[in-house]
Every structure is written in C-alpha cells, then in structure tokens.
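Help!! Second protein's tokens look totally different from the first
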Amino acid sequence: MTVFLSNPDGHVEVPIYHHVAVAIGTRQIHIAGQVSWDENGDLVAPGDLAGQVAQVYRNVAKALHSAGATFHDVVRITWYAAGWKKEMYDDFIAGTRQAAREFDLPMPPVAGKPTLLGRVRPSRRPSVIECRRDPRVHGFGAQRRAGS
C-alpha cells in the first residue's frame, strides 16, 4: 500500500505538515482506542503524560504488527486527552519523541497534524491519554511514499 502526502497548489505550506493524504490499497485496518495499559491491564506511568503517550505508542505498535502494518501505514491519528490543558503539550511531545526513539516513526507521525481532542471531564479510566489510528495497507510489508 502506498500513502501519498501532498500540499495543494496555492495552499499554505507548513513545515512537517501535509494537507492531503491519499491511501491507495485494498485493505483497511481499524485499531480500537489504545490507552497506557501493559499486557496485564495495569496502568503504565500513572500521573506521567509523557510515559503514558509512549506506552500508547507501544500498544499501537503491537496492534499494527499483528495486522502486518507499521507506523508508516498510518494515515490518521486521533488523540483524546482527559482534562487537557495547553501546558500539557510539552509532555505530550516528549512522549512522542520517546516513541520515535523506540520505533521507526515518520516525523511528523502522519499527514497533517494529529488531532488532539481534550475531554472536559476525565474518563472513568485512570489513564490521561487515548488514541485511535487509521492505517491503510495492501498486503504485508506495505510501503509509504511522501509526496511534496
């Protein structure tokens, strides 16, 4: 499967950002929302947003691998954060950078900026962060090509 990233002519170009992602292939994978639980269902990094973000990436990596995909196949990320405040952004980015050191993350992680949605009230779960990924793959060993 190939993902083409581009910026339309006459549209503002933002560093490390693409306005359009076109996924070509016949297979879609939908990964359920992932939180910072370990394999036993225990919360990883309580009270540490960066640690929770990194754990979410670890869980997503397992899910992608089980479906024959990689982070390079992901075309959309939606993050949900309980009690989000803009002061949390640096910790969020620190968790993403930790994951980039552990995995082959494209930077930026997908076309465009990941969507980050703050929740007004915390979830019933003790985790602060959750994400959904939408990879598109065609067969195994899918490749990603960046456009302009």
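Here's the second one for comparison:
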Amino acid sequence: MSAVEDMGSPSEVAPAVICWKCREPCQGVVCPGCGALQPPPPQADLFAVLGLERRYHLDRKAIDSAWRAASRQTHPDRFAGAPAVERRMALQWTATLNQARRALRDPVSRAWYLATGTPRPPERGGPTLPPDFLEDIFDLRMMLVEDPDAVADRVRQLKADLDGQLDARFTAWEQAEASLDEVPALLSRLKYVDNLLQEL
C-alpha cells in the first residue's frame, strides 16, 4: 500500500451484509433494525475492527481506548441472555478485538502487520540480509567476551540507527511518499540487533 487509509469506526468500515436475524441490509457491528450482534468479518483488518487509522505512529493509549470502546459493544456479558448464535459471535468478537489490541500495541508487530499483513515475521525465509551486516553481527558476538562495554555501545548505536530508519520510512509512507517494501528487511535487522542486546 502506498497511501494511508482512514479506516473510520467499526460501524463505518464493516461491509454491507444481510442481518442473519431480520434479513435486512446491515452495515456495522450491531444491526440497526433488530439490534442483533453481527459476526466479525473474516480475516478482519486489525486497524478497522478497532476503528483506528491504518498507520504506524499510534499511541498505546489511543489503541487501548479504541479497544475498550469496541469491546463495550460486543462484550459477552451484554449478550448473556441472547440466543446461542449471538453469544458465540460475542466470543468471536472478543477474540478478534484482543488479537487486534495485542498486535497493534507492540510497534514491531504493528510494523510487520502494516508491511506484510501479518504481525509476525515468517517462520522460514524472509528478507535476504546483506553479508556485511551478518558479518558485523558475527564479529560483535565474538567480541562480547573481550570487550562487552564497547560491544554494548556499538549495538545500541546500531539499534538507534535502525529505529530511526524505520521511523523515517513509516513517516514517508503515512504522507504517501514511500512504499513499505524495505520495512521487512529493516525489521529483520532489528531482530538480530535486539537478540544481541539481550545477550549483553
């Protein structure tokens, strides 16, 4: 994607469907005609279900606030006396909203999701990293025993540089000035650097 889309609120972004209960056209979490809870969309966009703009630079408080507002509409307690189908949908909504909150609160998983459509790196494969970067990581790991302080300084600088590149890339994307093609490679480098930081 090359431009930011304002996904709006859950009731605004849901595609028009036929209400399972009253068979009237319905667009939203709850049918405006009969008040029946509707099922979450299949393969729902994690930003859309929380009513958030599709962007990297999001405040955690805004994500939590959006999650609470969406959860109030679909919480299973609201449908405790409803038919079994609605109780099941409420549980499905809870799982969907919790997944969205969990993925979007973490900047790294949010970046993966925006760049690839999944909040995690691939288990196999992924971007091919430059040999010189991999050699630097290997050398730094070998130096840990001899001079851990120097390694710590170098690794922290590497992380700051990569964080800055990632921020700049998403800033440009949010202004419709760049694609996210380079983001998976940046995130893969960050993973190596973060692993090194954990060893310090």
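Reply: Different proteins will give different token patterns, so don't panic. The two ends are 37 Å apart (CA to CA).
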